[in-house]
Amino acid sequence: xxxxxxxxxxxxxxxxxxxxxxxxxxxxxxxxxxxxxxxxxxxxxxxxxxxxxxxxxxxxxxxxxxxxxxxxxxxxxxxxxxxxxxxxxxxxxxxxxxxxxxxxxxxxxxxxxxxxxxxxxxxxxxxxxxxxxxxxxxxxxxxxxxxxxxxxxxxxxxxxxxxxxxxxxxxxxxxxxxxxxxxxxxxxxxxxxxxxxxxxxxxxxxxxxxxxxxxxxxxxxxxxxxxxxxxxxxxxxxxxxxxxxxxxxxxxxxxxxxxxxxxxxxxxxxxxxxxxxxxxxxxxxxxxxxxxxxxxxxxxxxxxxxxxxxxxxxxxxxxxxxxxxxxxxxxxxxxxxxxxxxxxxxxxxxxxxxxxxxxxxxxxxxxxxxxxxxxxxxxxxxxxxxxxxx
Length: 390
Hints:
single chain, 390 residues, alpha/beta, 6-stranded parallel sheet, two-stranded antiparallel sheet, 8 strands, globular
């Protein structure tokens, strides 16, 4: 039986190879000024980006450009959104990875307020954002965060008192998500790996989430099938457009599912670790995905009664193995082994490579949120998980 559920609205989605060529048709006739955010390297040697740029120039609209070098901080957003030269922009277009899309989302939301974004961040500020924003178009150049379909923008302030928090409102969902897999062709293997594992994490976490529903389950399983089919192909051959298309689709689905079903302990670690240290979001997700899912599965196998979580991990195992007629325990163990093996094949870095040491683990575990994880763990369990991936 399908149970009750609600769904946050999705953007108008334009998906497929060649969709970027339609950019000029998305411009409203009355627009006079557009702000374009890009990554530091998202446009280099990318003919599709050049086409977008030229098509926008042909409209005669005034264009402003800003680059997002790393994962965006509140200061980055304030510097752009409170710059008087952008107060009359009609739209914001973000072309880049998840960090660029999050920055564009936050800038579009903060320009109308002329206030610091710090005042509106979850767990940091005390003001409620009214939801007003500039028209926002998200164009991803990586296949990972699914930010093109979510209602939040993640901002980081790293350091001893650092944090990684969201600016969130349902109206912040991009007005248009333009997903053209050709834009991901130049994505290097290391970014393909960590972005792909981020998407995989979001799909699996939202699938086994205690907040999931029948619709998000269907999306998540479809995305997991695409990851299984195409992540390694995209990693080993970046020019494989079919694999790139599958991964772009998986990332898009992961954004929809996480926005509606929530996430688990892996993203809890991504938030706490990312607040204290300069480390790519996808790297934390990718490096912690195997160990967290193994702990989840071990805990489930100790239970005497089978639950929805058992069934979902087993269904995941069926998709990943292609095997039928195996036991629940076999499928759960296969899932754990599969993720561990994928982590090694993708050459995902360990936490210690980013300056994280044993003495840091306690404070990381102390502020790590379980969110919608199907299993609750003690602090010592979180410490043990982090030690495994040092």
